[in-house]
Fold each of these.
Amino acid sequence: MSVIEFRDVSYHLSDGRAILRNLNLEVHRGEILVLLGRSGSGKTTALKLVNRLLETPRGELRVDGRPVSEWDVIQLRRHIGYAIQEVGLFPHYTIERNISLVPTIENWPKETIAQRVGELIKLVGLTGDVASRYPHQLSGGQRQRVGVARALAADPPILLMDEPFGALDPLTRTDLQREFLSLQQTLEKTVLFVTHDLREAMLLGSRIALLEEGRLVSLSSREDFLASPDPLVKKYVEAFGTAAECSAPRGSS
Amino acid sequence: MLCPARQLMNFWNFVAQNKLEIADLTLEHLWMVGAATLFSIAIGIPLGILITRKPALRKPVIAAANIVQTIPSLALFGFLLPAPWIGDRAGRLAVLALTLYALLPLIRNTYTGIKGVDRAVVEAARGMGLTDWQLLSKVELPLAASVIIAGVRVAVVISIGLATIAAAIGAGGLGELIFRGLAMVNNDVILAGAIPAALMALSADTLLGWLEKRLSPPRAA
């Protein structure tokens, strides 16, 4: 069953420039669909249309079978976790308050929130002592883990992730990618994941969608992606050289 | 010729003999500035917030506040004299004029403070489903607080200085001593008005500067 569904979705800037053209795409329950593409390919735009950070595309975009325009926008966003490269932690809140903001707003009981925060901190591989610290006292990798924990806080069934590991050093990035993968296999969230990094796409994606200039160039399973005869896919793969090596082990962590 | 020690003694004598009046005028001065500051906060901060929400209003609002600020203060006090209800009470008129002057720093700092909040923080907040009110009250205002207080600080210091001119329309305050001293060509009288006003401005500046620092969000090292 498709959780997110793009049907003939186009998006234009106010000056008429097309950012997305006739995108058709379905994200299935429990999968990680990776939107791959270079800067300006429209992948972030596609992501932001889902939680309506960008409004009113042409065509039809559904979440859980309902057009996003018919959702109450706040309900829609609370239904969807959102993690971005810059993380955007609240600098004036402790880690605990950062993670618990949405549950607090939704009036969860205090004990439930405290328990949930403890659980999430462990889940993303941090130790309890970070709870009382402020974002600026954490390393980039720790901050990004908190960002993921915050996105998961109210247990949304869907996650949107915009290059969440992009700003990290390669070692930390690989750690987080692997941890996220095993996390996702336990939680079975439906994930729409944006990246320009082919290695990341090969590691995380159940399926990979390549976007180029706002068009969907190729959509295939991870296994079939590298073998795709499409010239644009080939070009992308060549640019990453030995990326194929990274595709082998999955979920082994 | 004037001998400094002698001069100082004269000054202290004047202050000692008139301490009640000076205290009275200081209070009056404080009252004018305090009332004007409260009004300008009550008007300026909401206006500053409004123009972050309605970009089309930004230019006209800032321009209007700018124009007020360019009117020479004495002229503004004069302009307002014929206004009904206000004109017959010099104190109210002074408060109105001071409020108008204080608006610009408040509107501008509220606007820049909110606009200066890290884009990623705002995007994350909206993305996780905060309503506009929650975004404002939980994220933007706390993070803009120190910039807004900096605006209050500027407004208060300007007001304390400007309020001395209010005496020209009979609103009282420490300006009364300054004007009287000018008319009498007596430095002691001028100083008895000017020094308390300067001290008041300095302490307000220090206090609000401290508050500004306290409210600034924790920064990345």
Amino acid sequence: MSEIPILRIGDCLLVSIQVDMHDRLAMTLQDDLTQRIVADRAHGVMIDISALEIVDSFIGRMLNNIASMSRVLDAVTVVVGMRPAVAITLVELGLTLTGVRTALNVDKGLAMIRGIIDNPQNGYARRDARADREQ
Amino acid sequence: MVTPGETPVPIESSETMPLRNSDDVVRVRQAVRARAVGATFSLVDQTKIVTAASEIARNTVDYGGGGELRIEVLRDGQRRGVRLTFTDQGPGIPDLTLALKDGYTTGGGLGLGLSGAKRLSNEFDIVSAPGHGTKITLARWK
């Protein structure tokens, strides 16, 4: 079974999903990442999905779970590199990925994570404002 | 859906694949992608039918106890389409209306599989009865 490598850059973890994810692999990644956040004292997690040709509800749920777990562990998750066709399909599927931050590419994702870590007030304020709107 | 009395749509090609585990789900995604490319679907249309296939294939494995998929490439004059038929001999779906509701799940998922796959398809049909398995047919046209 192929594993998905988790790279560390400073206090961020970077995961680039380069394989067609089967369900067990998605669950393994979720567990591995959660452990690494604690072990590496990471404050940011970036998941690059630019190689993913589809995101179905299972992978969507995995992304949601990772974002929720890392939030509880005081880390910020940003998903980067979603393909346009995947984004169009996700919306029609009905998956909104509430609670998952997204950025266009790795550069912007890192900048977003830095911004939130260095200025948590900003990040939390933004999240609260969004939660209020949705209520 | 072909109802009795209607002229059946000409089928260009047809293949059947087993659906037993999550590796088969990945293979199904790749096969459906290849057929959609062959039918000259746009990238967005390919992504939509592959995503729909992934949702239903997972249901067949997780809830239906495994089954099979028939992939057909259709040609209706200038129109080309891909039709997928998922069959299992599992416990069946007791309440189809409820099963098709957004957010309804018996398995701890997001409850978007059936309803989402339906939205991603141009044609969608479920035949199921408790104890008699489930047959889901979906099609997408170019």
